[in-house]
Specification:
Elements (H helix, E strand, L loop, with lengths): L6 E12 L2 E12 L3 E5 L6 H8 L7 E6 L2 E2 L4 H4 L3 E4 L11 H11 L4 H15 L14 H13 L5 E5 L7 H16 L3 E6 L2 H4 L4 E6 L2 E6 L1 H5 L5 E6 L3 H7 L6 E7 L2 E6 L2 H14 L6 E4 L4 H8 L7
Parallel strand pairs: 3-8, 3-9, 6-7, 7-8
Antiparallel strand pairs: 1-2, 1-4, 4-5, 9-10, 11-13, 11-14, 12-13
Helix pairs in contact: 3-5, 4-5
Length: 313
């Protein structure tokens, strides 16, 4: 951490065990003030577990968590004054209106009337929810419910916001609005830690922790993580993408091939060396309509390659 961005979240040797094994196995990381730190990984990687541990709603079996200098394990109630945790299914009251839900959460945190109205008005304006203040929560769309949940989570102005899969099942427009709000919060100095399955969203984070089976494989900025990509990446576009992928199976130098729509992302040891060989194999398989070109790796490409899932359809 730099002197200008001291750590507000410090996690050391964190462990959580379940009946089937480790949920979190000896995890270490820090989050700086005002950053958006993302946790990404497949189902069962430990994303939700780490969010619950940070939020103080689950007790670890080992290690330590400090948020803004407070020991979350020893003093979870004090820590919750600094933190707001929004789980996958936020506890909105569907028979209450938007305003009434906000009032309820403001009362929980003993926010005075003037402060709550100013804060609510600003958050609802940012999320485009102002016209719906009198609508019952049960009649909101999925994206609107998530934005209302975020507003309720922020009504007490937390220093740290924890979000577990906040845009799961949300339409693209609402996802964009949601991220615009998050960027605004970051500008205000709020630290955001979130779990996401959307790897395109992961690229919007300042730093990422790549999780697998309860361990953090790598932790760095998206641009730095992409440099870990083993080999080089090429894109093959063809209406016969699946057949093209199959034609490359077992070809020397081809480490992985992942179907992405009507294209195949190919990881090779040396693009210059293997291009001719790939073209020859495709021609031999009758793949005539094709375009092969270099491709800058995405976080999805990196993660698939690291986990050895490059051949999955």
């Amino acid at each position: 951490m730099t002197a200008s961005s001291p750590a507000i979240i410090v996690v050391q040797d964190l462990a959580k065990r379940f009946a089937g094994g480790f949920g979190i196995d000896g995890m270490n990381f820090e989050c700086a003030r005002g950053e958006i730190f993302g946790f990404v990984g497949p189902d069962g990687a430990g994303k939700t577990t780490i969010m619950r541990l940070l939020g103080g709603v689950m007790t670890p079996d080992g290690g330590s968590i400090r948020i803004d200098g407070v020991d979350v394990i020893a003093d979870p109630e004090t820590a919750k004054l600094h933190v707001s945790y929004m789980p996958q299914r936020f506890g909105l009251y569907e028979d209450l209106t938007v305003d009434e839900n906000i009032e309820f959460f403001a009362d929980l945190f003993e926010i005075d009337a003037t402060s709550r109205e100013e804060r609510a008005a600003r958050l609802l304006t940012a999320s485009g929810m102002t016209p719906f203040r009198k609508r019952r929560a049960g009649r909101l769309s999925g994206g609107m419910k998530q934005k209302l949940g975020l507003t309720c989570s922020l009504i007490h102005t937390p220093k740290v916001l924890l979000l577990d899969e906040p845009t799961a099942g949300v339409d693209p427009v609402s996802r964009r609005d949601f991220w615009r709000i998050l960027y605004g919060l970051r500008e205000e100095g709020v630290t955001i830690a979130l779990a996401t399955s959307y790897l395109d969203e992961a690229e919007r984070c300042t730093r990422l922790g790549l999780l697998h089976e309860g361990r953090m494989l790598h932790c760095d900025t998206p641009s730095a993580l992409k440099k870990l990509m083993p080999g080089e990446l090429m894109s093959l576009t063809s209406p016969q993408a699946r057949a093209a992928r199959d034609a490359l199976a077992g070809l020397a130098g081809v480490r992985a091939a992942l179907l992405v729509g009507d294209s195949v992302h190919i990881v090779v040891d040396d693009a210059k060396l293997r291009t001719g060989e790939i073209e020859h194999a495709l021609a031999a398989a009758g793949i005539v309509d094709r375009r092969l070109e270099p491709l800058a790796p995405s976080i999805e490409d990196l993660f698939s390659s690291l986990l050895g899932q490059g051949g999955a359809s």
